[in-house]
Amino acid sequence: MYSESIQLVDPTAEDEEQGGGEVTLVLLEDGSLCTIHKPGGHSIASNFLDKFIDLARKRVTLVNSAIHKAVAERKTLQDTFNI
Hints:
Number of helices: 2
Largest sheet: 2 strands, antiparallel
Helix content: 40-55%
Number of strands: 4
Order of helices and strands: EEHEEH
Shape: elongated
């Protein structure tokens, strides 16, 4: 998922080569921030970090929705075919 110069994905090796640094945000299912990891490199301005967190919160909602849907579909298949 891209938004201007912000990349919110699981980067490939090529993506990592093009990036100027990395920051990892971990959010809980309710969208609360669990941890931030920023190894080395330059510091991140607080306004950019706030933007990263806002984007991650939107993404966590989308990802969790997809996971819940997949689990429900699998359960339906298991129940249908007695697996």
